[in-house]
Design brief:
411 residues, SH3 type barrels, 2 domains, 4-stranded antiparallel beta sheet
Length: 411
């Protein structure tokens, strides 16, 4: 059970009173313990027993923290108001039917915060499934009927926004549809699952580029240099010539974690101008992350050996960087990889399966991290060959990832 759910249950008896109280609480200035930092935000929830505070900022994001980081005056102000339960999560999801329904063509309720799901990875997350093979799957095999209407035209979801940034360059920004696409990734299977299950506006925000490894390009903050086979591998913002780095970005040279920085900053650029990318949107919540990656790490013994450690830090750091501690995380293994496989590919696959909350290895990931074993959804080829462009691999993996996310949101 998540902390959010626990708080909801603990204060259920005060919900009616809190709703009235919250409607009368304006935004206020919050101050850090030492008085050096301030920010504007509206109190949304307060657990007097644990000191957990939930605040909505003017920019529409949500901050969750313990009262210990606040000034004495802020803490006194909180205690004077007593316990305030959080509102039910707007990303709460309905159970999905076995066969996804056609989109109803209706726009989402823009009075609710946009539920943002950030997609990261490398080339197969970018998407190289061929639309020609998708047309064959839909029209000949009868798969994915929700993608076409009765006239055989591609459907459009007006409750799911599909945004793709690649190293600060906008690739597309429109409603979820196959129309006008040459290639696709897992985002369509993901988007239709989430659009069906969530009673709120949904944004699929993809920020990634191909040929990137978790052990180098996407290395998350906090990663330290390490030795492997007599060679020093750089830590975050380090380089081969300066493995430790000084914590700042390296100018004029690629550095460990540069793609992590670029992908995160690209996604934040979209969220900072939310209405441009989701017309009519006023607020957003980063509800979850999707990750499909691993091909490049399989080509390095050092990266494969450290993949699990890097992946755990990657999950935690993304939640921190987007102020989304309760967000869910879903990743998929490489389609061609098997659970019993050895070598570097086996190490990467084992690491990806290890972080699944159901595995039990990481108790903190229980109920909020899921790994999709993608091998059953692979229709041939490998990740490095982009599965031969077979769109069914991308659609089936995407649906599986979307369903896994819906299951996490429903907990």
């Amino acid at each position: 059970m998540t902390r959010h759910a626990t708080l909801s249950q603990r204060f259920l008896f005060t919900a009616a009173f809190a709703t009235v109280l919250l409607s009368s609480l304006p935004a206020r200035t919050w101050t850090s313990t030492d008085g050096s930092k301030t920010f504007e935000g509206e109190l949304k929830a307060y657990d007097a027993a644990t000191g957990m505070v939930v605040v909505s900022t003017a920019g529409g994001s949500t901050k969750k923290f313990n009262q210990d980081v606040l000034s004495a005056d802020d803490i006194a102000w909180l205690k004077s108001r007593g316990a305030i339960p959080p509102a039910p999560a707007s990303a709460a999801a309905r159970k999905l039917p076995d066969l996804l329904p056609d989109p109803d063509g209706k726009e989402a309720d823009m009075g609710k915060p946009v539920q943002v799901f950030i997609l990261m990875g490398q080339s197969n997350m970018v998407g190289l499934g061929k639309i020609a093979s998708l047309e064959d799957a839909v029209k000949t095999k009868g798969k994915y009927p929700y993608l076409v209407d009765d006239d055989g035209k591609w459907t459009v979801r007006k409750d799911v926004r599909n945004v793709f940034m690649m190293t600060f360059k906008l690739q597309h920004n429109d409603w979820m549809s196959i129309a006008n696409r040459n290639n696709l990734g897992p985002e369509h299977g993901i988007g239709h699952c989430l659009g069906t299950a969530i009673d709120a506006p949904v944004m699929i925000l993809k920020s990634c580029i191909g040929n990137r490894s978790l052990g180098w390009d996407l290395l998350p903050p906090g990663s330290e240099p390490y030795e492997f086979d007599g060679k020093t591998n750089p830590g975050y913002r380090g380089t081969p010539g300066n493995p430790k780095g000084d914590g700042t970005k390296v100018e004029g040279e690629w550095y460990a974690g540069k793609q992590y920085d670029d992908d995160v900053e690209g996604a934040k650029q979209v969220l900072a101008d939310l209405n441009t990318y989701y017309p009519g949107a006023q607020k957003h919540e980063v509800a979850g992350f999707f990750f499909w990656q691993g091909e490049k790490d399989c080509g390095s013994a050092a990266h494969a050996e450290h993949y699990e450690k890097n992946l755990v830090r990657f999950i935690k750091q993304l939640r921190k960087d987007f102020d989304a501690p309760n967000s869910k995380f879903v990743l998929a293994t490489l389609g061609e990889a098997r659970k019993d496989e050895g070598g570097n590919k086996g190490k990467v696959t084992d690491a990806q399966l290890a972080v699944d909350g159901k595995n039990g290895k990481y108790n903190e990931f229980k109920g909020n991290v899921a790994t999709v074993y993608a091998n059953p959804y692979c229709h041939g080829g490998s990740g490095n060959s982009h599965y031969g462009g077979n769109a069914e691999t991308y659609m089936d993996t995407g649906e599986a990832m979307g369903r896994a996310m819906v299951e996490l949101l429903a907990q």
